[in-house]
Design goal:
Strand content: 25-35%
Distance between the termini: 18 Å
Shape: globular
Mean pLDDT: 92
Helix content: 25-40%
Order of helices and strands: EHEHEEEEEHEHEEEEEHEEEH
Oligomer: single chain
Number of helices: 6
Low-confidence stretches: none
Largest sheet: 7 strands, mixed
Length: 268
Amino acid sequence: MLDIAIIGAGPAGLSAGINAIARGREAAVFGRGVESSFLYKAEKVDNHLGLPGLSGSEMLDKFYNHAKSLGVDIRNGRVLQILPMGDYFSINFDNMIENSRTIILATGIVKGDKIEGEEEFLGKGVSYCATCDGMLYRGKEVAVVGNSEEAMEDAEFLSKIAAKVHLVKSKPIRVTGEQFVTAIETKEGIIPCQGVFFIKETMPFDSLIAGIELDGGLVKVDRLQQTNIPGVFAAGDCTGWPYQLSKAVGEGLVAAQQADRYISKENK
């Protein structure tokens, strides 16, 4: 079992990983690679102390190589769900289960706005994880929204369960229904279905871990990066403004130190 599972491999997540290792904790960083970070596409970054004149990709490569040189375990993939299990957390990472005593959310901002009906029908036909919820739609008609490799894989998975699978690659307009989903509307027309799976690079926070408290759609934390769920911390852009590299690195450090303190208290 891990001591600290860090969700996100950007500046906040890598900073947390380095500081978790410095505290002697068994930690792993779960992410989609540094190229998924908004920072990666920055032409030039001049406002991070001591590292002037670098592009975003050059800076992230330095962060990544630094973390690897210290022995940080970095795993490339997508975290689908985190389940509180009492005194530990169970993590669905690309349909493999990892357990950890604490969690640090460092996922950055969820890319892509929600469409009309998406939030309203969450759990009533709308899902973000085909392998988590697919069995609920055996013999039914479903739609998969996304054009990533994961979307194609999830559509293939659902084709073995559902009666029919519609793959929607362009952004749809709205999800419709009454008590439960009955259709998804696109520019091409209305697709009748009982389930809609939105396959996103980053899972919405309240779908990733049930019960997490949000503030304006972002993870609510105190000055010690603690969330409302004991043992769960958050750092970086997912906690809100200011969306700055130095803030993310600092919050990653604080989150790792607080996770270490939390484990020490729990073990007494």
